[in-house]
């Protein structure tokens, strides 16, 4: 299930008048390396994350848990943008706290990739063979920082 938003490019060109429509993909499926184990012992690995909004990045900064421990920012932020994890549709910070560390690291990286799409890739040319390719420039950076 992917959610997309259709919008006109709005440039006033011939293409706009012909009815051409751009789409924006807002939800992205993922599969956790290990999976979340719920209270009944069921493992949930497949989920959906949506693009973050400015509100998603700002609201956690008012959270007392984040104020006391800045590392908790990623837990709150990830819980806000996961739409579904297996059969769980209410992914709250408690669920994210109980993820294995490798799964949290995966989700932090996934978050960075989908929210910085188009901004962390650069076209480069190999100085030896002159082949063109893209490289991902997203270094480390903390989750929630631009």
Structural class: alpha+beta
Beta-strand content bin = 25-35%
Helix proportion range:
25-40%
Low-confidence spans: pLDDT under 50, at least 5 residues?
Answer: 7-14, 137-143
N-to-C CA distance: 28 Å
What is the CA-based Rg, rounded? 19 Å
Number of helices: 6
- Strand ordering within the main sheet: 3-4-5
Shape: globular
User: How many β strands by DSSP?
Assistant: 7
The largest sheet is:
3 strands, antiparallel
User: What value does the average pLDDT take?
Assistant: 82
Spell the H/E element sequence.
EHEEEHHHEHHEE
Short description:
Helix content is 29%, strand content 28%.
Can you offer a commentary on this structure?
- The radius of gyration is 19 Å and the shape is globular.
- Helices cover about 30% and strands about 30% of the residues.
- It has helices at about 15, 55-60, 65-70, 75-80, 95, 100-115; strands spanning about 5, 20-25, 25-35, 45-50, 80-85, 120-125, 130-135.
- The chain is built from six helices and seven strands.
- Residues about 5-15 and about 135-145 have low confidence and may be disordered.
- β3 and β4 form a beta hairpin.
- A three-stranded antiparallel sheet has the order 3-4-5. A two-stranded antiparallel ribbon has the order 1-2.
- The longest helix is centred in the C-terminal third of the chain and has 15 residues, at about 100-115.
- By secondary structure, the chain is an alpha+beta fold.
């Amino acid at each position: 299930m992917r959610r997309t938003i259709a919008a006109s490019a709005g440039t006033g060109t011939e293409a706009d008048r012909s009815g051409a429509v751009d789409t924006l993909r807002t939800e992205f499926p993922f599969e956790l390396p290990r999976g979340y184990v719920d209270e009944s012992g069921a493992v949930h690995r497949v989920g959906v994350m949506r693009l973050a909004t400015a509100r998603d990045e700002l609201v956690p900064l008012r959270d007392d848990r984040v104020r006391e421990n800045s590392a908790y920012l990623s837990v709150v932020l990830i819980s806000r943008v996961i739409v579904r994890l297996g059969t769980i549709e209410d992914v709250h910070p408690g669920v994210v706290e109980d993820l294995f560390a490798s799964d949290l690291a995966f989700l932090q990286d996934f978050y960075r990739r989908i929210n910085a799409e188009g901004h962390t890739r650069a076209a480069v040319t190999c100085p030896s063979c002159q082949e063109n390719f893209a490289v991902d420039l997203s270094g480390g950076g903390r989750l929630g920082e631009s």
